[in-house]
């Protein structure tokens, strides 16, 4: 599999088989992902991988507190403007249409949101952390690392879903992961094998290159 194929095949999977992913496979994935670039070679990422009992405990706590806790950071700016507002709206409409949940079914939509707290049934949860004393360039480095993990997972026949949802549980994750005062969780990631649920047929829309790229000086 080449990089282009991995990019094309990668999607955010929201329904997983219960089949386990062994420790050796997770370690191999992280071993290869460590070659991701970072400014000054800081390698600012820190990763916690949970399965079995520790992951079950996290799911239990998330289920007991579906509203979450005060988050570490704001995921989206207030009052999004176009084209960002349009893109987010289209994504939401497409997602719930695949599941057959109409806009007026607020309970159904909240139930689907809560499935984030169960990692959509994935057998492994990865949690990506940063030292809070680092700056926005290191946030970008972490994003590159996360993308590398997701593409390598595709190559391995695995599926993923990156979840900023977990920024809603800083206290819970600090306790369960044993984070230091300097660490915080940027996001989680569900890792496992996709099942046949229709939700995994969703392919999010992408705007054409001409809408966001400017090329100059080319012959």
**If classified by CATH, what would the architecture be?**
3-Layer(aba) Sandwich
Q: Beta-strand percentage?
A: 5-15%
CATH superfamily: NADH Oxidase
Q: What structural class is derived from the secondary structure elements?
A: alpha+beta
Low-confidence runs: none
Q: What are the secondary-structure elements, in order, as H or E?
A: HHEHHHEHEHE
Helix content: 25-40%
The gross shape turns out to be globular
Distance linking N and C termini? 32 Å
Largest beta-sheet details: 4 strands, antiparallel
Strand tally: 4
- Tally the structural domains: 1
CATH class: Alpha Beta
Helical stretch count?
7
Please state how the strands of the largest beta sheet are arranged side by side: 1-2-4-3
